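Hi R.,

Here's the chain you asked about this morning:
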Amino acid sequence: MAVIAVVGGPGAPGATTTALALLLAWPLRPGRRILLVEADPDGGAVLAGALEGRVEAVYGLRNLAVADRRGLLAQTIWEQLIDLSPEGNAERLLLPGLTDPAQAPGLAYTWEPLAELLHGIEQQGYDVIVDLGRSGATGTSAVLARRADVVAVTVRSTLRGLSAARPRLAALGEDLAAAGTGADALGLLLVAEGPYSGAEVSREFGLPLLGVLPYATRTARVLSDGGDTTDRRFIRSELMRTARSAADEVQLLVRRRRQRLAPNAAPAGAPAVAPAVAPAAAAQLSAPGGPGPAAAGPVAGPVAPPSVPVPQASSAPGPAPYGQPAYGPTGQGQGQPGYAQPGYGQFGYAQPAHAHPAHGQGEAEPPSYAPPVITTGPVAPLAGLAPQPAAPAPFPAHVQAAGPTEDEGQYRLQQPMVTNDQIEDRYPYNPGEVLHAR
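And here is the predicted structure, written out as tokens:
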């Protein structure tokens, strides 16, 4: 369906929490899946947050840099995914982010082929959400935002949040207009913390409003710090309901933009037709290592890769069709086997006829080349990985709910019932003395 980039900003507006909410609330037709990529150069937060450290930090984005240098990016990415589906059917997947911001420079030449790969798997039945965090939309990783169908910016509706977002939105819009798919890819995901309404913010910034998420701290804490995402109260919470509405608005914006940029495409609202899969790819999809029914909870391991289509080069100069990256001269012998090495400021996009030539050079015809072939290798069996620990056990029976709720559908305040016998058994001294000493 689409590649969606979620961007944050100063003040921690909640980009990762919003991306996780979209991942769990995204509507999926039969046979489709969704992938969340933690591409924040400042580091990922899901492993230690929503997963509460239950999955070892050996999977993730940091392993793709070495794989890309060896020409194994398309194969290795499937070995780094974690299944976040409540049913364990590998429909909602996660590619964990960096564990240290110092690892970001090693991915400088990997962002470009990663963006191409994400668009390739998107055409094979995968929706992709890219969490760019605070600084991922700038620098070398900006290509992920420039290639995205929609760039959703999370903003808090406070004066401080709106003031910090204004210059970043202006700069991001200019960058998308100059080197991306257009400034109309921008949209707002508003966190209703302050006094300003969504209509006011949308009118002031001149950007479409994709959704208004409630400022529900207890529900959001399940996504940011861990909790039971299968609980009925969490599923029916206001945050998840508004996330489903935001996902519908994002999909509608994608269909409108693709209809405008590709007039010969299917009309807006029409169901997408999945491309044909080669027999070899069909064999890989049914390989023993492919995803299948499993126990609930996060499962780390290789996921059967789909067939990644090979983009065809255009014979005429000019911008490449929407959704297809424009390739430059191959980078054989330059540390990037099989991938194009774009010049500074080009990021792999074909330059229009009126673009300024390089200093001291005239207008030149595009070089002739053969597009690189992206292949997928064998998939290791899932049984070869150590089982991951299950989700934490629920609260014991002696913990009882009491007190009013903060918002509709949220968890009640819980206070353990402790008897005098338990105090005497655990504390050989007076607990009042401990409190006084503190």
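One quick note: Residues 267-296, 308-389, 394-416, 426-438 have pLDDT under 50 and may be disordered.

Cheers,
M.
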